[in-house]
Design brief:
30% strand; Archaeosine Trna-guanine Transglycosylase, Chain: A, domain 4; single chain; alpha+beta; 7-stranded mixed sheet; 24% helix; 5 helices
Length: 188
């Protein structure tokens, strides 16, 4: 696998620990047509630090910010996990927090910032099944991967065979079912 989705390192850490099963996306500045698209259903998680701020995380989960910096090496990216998109939910009103329960680490400040950024664009909730690689890979940062873009193609393939799911099948299924029902509402 060589396709990776860039995400804040603290969010990647939360995904790897099972503290979160979702990502919120609208699209980065360098996105095609300025909108986020799910171009791949399976991808590596590429941790980034640009724009990551402690205020964007709920107080009871801020430890993931500190943990995300542990072992960080300048000029290198640690790839330790990959994800499969199980569900994509489009929220036109941006109402995420009242329905998301504890399956995320995002603060109100972050969700509001996402909602206000390109307010005419929908907010996408990606429900992810996350897997830990048998061993992490250290890759050199490349200039072509920099900037506000979601997707990057790595210079080399990473073998994901032997990966372990973060959550058991049963736990993930229950959490996903509850989250999706809450976000979509009883009529959908």
């Amino acid at each position: 696998m060589n396709t990776a989705l860039k995400e804040w390192a603290a969010v990647v850490r939360a995904l790897e620990l099972g503290r979160q099963i979702v990502l919120l996306r609208k699209g980065g500045i360098a996105e095609s047509q300025g909108r986020f698209e799910v171009t791949n259903r399976e991808f590596l998680l590429y941790p980034t630090y640009e724009h990551q701020e402690e205020r964007f995380f709920v107080p009871e989960r801020k430890e993931v910010v500190a943990e995300s910096f542990a072992g960080r090496k300048p000029g290198q990216v640690r790839i330790g996990s990959w994800a499969r998109v199980e569900e994509v939910i489009r929220l036109s009103d941006g109402a995420f927090l009242p329905h998301a329960g504890a399956d995320h680490v995002y603060s109100e400040a972050f969700v509001e910032q996402r909602r206000q950024y390109k307010p005419d664009h929908p907010l996408y909730v990606l429900v992810l099944r996350v897997f830990i690689l048998p061993k992490p890979f250290m890759l050199a940062e490349r200039p072509e991967d920099a900037g506000c873009r979601s997707w990057v193609s790595l210079a080399e393939d990473i073998d994901v065979s032997g990966s372990t799911p973060v959550l058991s099948d049963e736990e993930f299924s229950v959490r996903m079912k509850n989250l999706v029902a809450s976000l979509r509402g009883p009529s959908q």
